[in-house]
Amino acid sequence: MKKRVVVTGMGAITPIGNSVEDFWAGIKAEKIGFVPISYFDTTDYKCKLAAEVKDFNPEDFMDKKAARRMEPFCQFAVAAAKQAMDDSGINMENEDPYRVGCAIGSGIGSFQSIEKEHSTLLEKGPTRISPLFVPTMISNMAAGNVSIAFGLKGKNINVVTACATGTNSIGEAFRTIQYGDADIMFAGGTESAITPLGMGGFLALKALSTSEDPTKCSIPFDKERGGFVMGEGAGIVVLEELEHAKARGAKIYAEVLGYGCSADAFHITSPAEDGMGAATAMLNAVNDAGLDKNSITYINAHGTSTHHNDLFETRAIKLAFEDHAKDIKINSTKSMIGHLLGAAGAVEFITSVKTVEEGYIHKTVGLNESDEEMDLNYCKQSYEEEVPYAISNSLGFGGHNASILVGKYNA
Predict the structure, then answer these.
(1) Which of 32, 107, 127, 279 qualifies as a cystine partner to 319, CB 3.0-4.6 A?
(2) Catalytic residue from among 47, 74, 102, 302
(3) What pLDDT, on the 0 to 100 scale, is given for residue 411?
(4) What are the residues facing 406 on neighbouring strands?
(5) Parallel, antiparallel, or unpaired for β 5-13 and 254-263?
(6) Which pTM value belongs to this model?
């Protein structure tokens, strides 16, 4: 018998708020986090805007010495994990630490370290490279630092599937608890790639919006969309085996019901044009949950604001849900926070949990008019209604498709 898994804690560092409370208030206020890039001189860059984390002080969440030994993606992860720990009410003194694990991924790791130490190599030679270069740069260090900070000695993994990283991390944590390998898992994603190399690389792919208007730079599903806006931050959730959560009197936000994956096996950056890969991931999640697909009324889309993603994800939803697709409300959180790469799916999972908890479906901000083929309900307005189930989609370079399904907790 697979064990039931619930969400008992959440933490978030985002471009519109450095806590779940502030983030969700920003979502409901339709706040956009797009600002001129402050981290470096963008004179030679066609892209001028990004969704930077603002007013973040790592020492609010960890001691100064620990913070100095972490790059921003790790700082964000530890900060969000501390929030999630505090929110969950878990006291590690009462837990078997080998039954508490961690599945936190980053799509890239630290571009900051790479850029800095490469300059050192060229200017001063290999003997001057920092001994901390490798352990601060590699992407698994978010999971490593979280486990060290909070004494999590159970299963510790770093899933890297590009922009599907956050969703896959939560999904693999879900499976870990389902099959009895842990009682509690801290899970999610983190990213900080607003750097000269990061922005230059995505610009070279023609993936980024070059609009300098914050209200029009990230407009998923709009016919005028022209690329995504780079974001940064972290989303971490505490997943817990139901009986364990009940025994300690935990607050339960929602239940994780299904997880589905697939591969497009098509192209290194473009989703499959017919949408079959993403459709399969969604249906796998629905089937894993044991639900009728017609019971799904809300999807938090990957919705990047690129031409290919939004069109092909629309095709995927139509393939998966057929005539019922027109009855599903679909939105994109990236319309407010941009694309957090490896953290995107985790923050959007938190959005989905809050949507189920409060019965509030946010507007896709900036959406005015869609292409003719894109004729579904992409939420030009917000809705207040019961949402029994939510699917959150993430699609990553390399053809990685991941969908996770959450629902209201019913005892």
Answers:
(1) 279
(2) 302
(3) 83
(4) 256, 390
(5) antiparallel
(6) 0.97
